[in-house]
Amino acid sequence: MDPKTLHKISYGLYIVCSKEGEKINGQIANALFQITSEPPTIAVSINKQNLTHEYIEKSKCFTVSILSEKAPLTFIGNFGFKSGRDIDKFKDVEFKLGNSKVPLVLDYALACLETKLIDKIDVGTHTIFIGNVEDAEVLSEEKPMTYEFYHKVKGGYSPKTAPTYSGEVDRARKKEEKKMDKYVCKVCGYVYEPEKGDPDNGVAPGTKFEDVPEDWVCPVCGARKEDFEKE
Ligand code: FE
């Protein structure tokens, strides 16, 4: 079996949020899709280890923000590679509370929707949550971020808890890209590519890793420069 086959399936990139009482949390999800239009329902696959999973189980509602191509890696990393158990993911993020008091992330979102949980399916490491769409709003006409765009253009990787994570494929892909001196974040696997730089954070394309400012941090997980190693 060629595991790369599964990487030919296309996805978007979303922030799924939920709550427990007054506490709120959100995370990146890519395995999300519409199931029916009458009534409008969607499904999302969430890892059982994640705090958002716990919150959806308890509150029986979740929201979805559909991310635009403009979303920077730092922003995605905040929701995708960090846990709401350790940090407040909403600290510098613009959001509003929906009818169910679950946050809807507005930054880099081109649309958002609110759902009520109507069913769930246990699929081992993950649960597929099925939600009835109760409210929905278009926020901008930007292009939606696809998972392929995130990987190829932005240089992003999957955390181990993502439904689409494949260590084998991610490692193979990193090998293929080996031409110049690239540096890998030991914490999250983000690869600094000199040709691309990190323009979102003031590092111009073509900047050697050695010349990246010392106070620069991993755009995905926030690790320091010393936590990088040559690939
Ligand atoms: Fe990192």
Quick rundown:
14% of the residues lie in helices and 33% in strands. The protein has helices spanning 51-59, 73-80, 147-152, 167-176, and strands at residues 14-20, 23-29, 32-37, 40-47, 61-67, 95-97, 103-105, 109-123, 126-138, 183-185, 191-192, 228-230. The model has no long low-confidence stretch (mean pLDDT 91).
Word description of this protein:
This protein is α+β, with helices and mostly antiparallel strands and 231 residues long. It is 14% helix and 33% strand. The chain is built from four helices and twelve strands. The strands form three sheets. Strands 2-1-5-8-9-4-3 form a seven-stranded antiparallel β-sheet. The longest helix has 10 residues, at 167-176. The radius of gyration is 18 Å and the shape is globular. Fe (iii) ion is lined by residues 185, 187-188, 190, 218, 220-221, 223.
Looking at this protein, list some descriptive labels:
231 residues; alpha+beta; three-stranded antiparallel beta sheet; 33% strand
Question: Which SSEs are present, and which pair or pack?
Answer:
Layout: E1 14-20, E2 23-29, E3 32-37, E4 40-47, H1 51-59, E5 61-67, H2 73-80, E6 95-97, E7 103-105, E8 109-123, E9 126-138, H3 147-152, H4 167-176, E10 183-185, E11 191-192, E12 228-230
Antiparallel strand pairs: 1-2, 1-5, 3-4, 4-9, 5-8, 6-7, 8-9, 10-11, 10-12
This protein binds fe (iii) ion.
